[in-house]
Write a structure and sequence with these properties.
Elements lengths: L2 H4 L2 H14 L5 H12 L5 H12 L6 H24 L3 E2 L2 E2 L1 H5 L1 H22 L2 H24 L7 H26 L4 H28 L2 H4 L5 H4 L5 H8 L3 H13 L5 H10 L2 H19 L7 H15 L3
Antiparallel strand pairs: 1-2
Keywords: Magnesium, Metal-binding, Transferase
Pfam families: polyprenyl_synt (PF00348)
Family: Belongs to the FPP/GGPP synthase family.
């Protein structure tokens, strides 16, 4: 476990068990795919945020465990659908569910996870939480569709890029924190500040993810280097590089995005480095991490708040 997991170790383990329990289905294929995803591990950062936020305000009931599992089910459902849309074959160092079982079962099990999440929301009984999470799932879907529209379009702007990552990534980080504040009956100031913390943290994580596609390696990433380029995704390192390279170099990048081609991957990696694309993207991530940490000032000092600061620092120091 990473340091920021340790302060909520018992709750985190309880959430993992709850996830397994809630995967129960009379249909074997649902359980098989569900358990395959759970066993793949991952940092479970979104449910972790629920636990840390709740504990930072002294929450002592048990509903935060269900809320954390709900957030993870929503996230996992989006990953299942994403891998189908992107035709991905590798995630977290293992074959994707669609690579093992095919697209149709992956989509349908994703739907199962969404519906199970909403069943669990009903059990919590908070209309406020249901409103936030129903809106969030809608926003995530919009972000995914917009990303699909932007694919293979080298003219996507930096503003459009940030709109997409706000919706497809930051929204669920934000919802994890805000719904935890609802459970705690937090003040309006605390609720807004922790929602901002989650949003900035999510943006930072996505920015770093987008740099790792050009500076990581497949073994540590758990996916293939250059996957974003192969899918024609105009991420910030590429957008910046095209704006700060020669016309000939920009054309190389633009053509690769249009074609979804990794034929010139090594050249493009060189260009995103030499143009400052990677440095600029890291700088943007650092700015959002700083804003995230500033948002934590509304919380009383505690080991949980310190862990949230550590998590923000981890967002920009990680290599996978």
């Amino acid at each position: 476990m990473l340091s920021f997991h340790n302060v909520v170790r018992e709750d985190f383990e309880a959430v993992n068990q709850l996830i397994i329990d809630q995967l129960h289905s009379d249909v074997d294929l649902v359980e098989n795919i569900g358990h395959y995803l759970v066993e793949a591990g991952g940092k479970r950062l979104r449910p972790l945020l629920v636990l840390l936020c709740a504990k930072a305000l002294g929450y002592s009931d048990k509903q935060h465990l269900s809320l954390a599992a709900i957030i993870e089910f929503i996230h996992t459902a989006t990953l299942l659908h994403d891998d189908v849309v992107d035709m991905s074959e590798l995630r977290r160092g293992r074959p994707t569910a669609n690579a093992n079982w095919g697209n149709a079962p992956s989509v349908l099990v994703g739907d199962f996870l969404y519906s199970r999440a909403f069943q669990m929301m009903v059990a919590i009984g908070s209309m406020d939480i249901m409103a936030i999470l129903s809106n969030t799932t809608n926003v995530i879907s919009e972000g995914e569709v917009q990303q699909l529209v932007n694919a293979k379009d080298p003219d996507v702007t930096e503003a459009s890029y940030f709109t997409v990552i706000n919706k497809k990534t930051a929204a669920l980080f934000e919802a994890a924190c805000e719904t935890a504040m609802v459970l705690c009956d937090a003040s309006a100031e605390q609720r807004a500040a922790l929602a901002a913390y989650g949003s900035h943290l999510g943006i930072a994580f996505q920015l770093v993810d987008d740099t790792l596609d050009y500076e990581g390696d497949a073994e540590s990433l758990g996916k293939n280097v250059g996957d974003d380029l192969a899918e024609g995704k105009p991420t910030l390192p590429l957008i910046y590089a095209m704006a700060h390279s020669s016309e000939e170099e920009s054309t190389i990048i633009a053509d690769a995005i249009r074609q979804g081609s990794v034929e010139h991957l090594s050249k493009i990696v060189e260009l995103v480095r030499s143009s400052g694309g990677l440095a600029y993207t890291h700088q943007q991530a650092e700015l959002h991490v700083q804003k995230a940490k500033e948002s934590l000032q509304v919380l009383p000092p505690s080991d949980y708040r310190s862990a949230m600061e550590d998590l923000a620092n981890f967002a920009i120091s990680r290599t996978n």
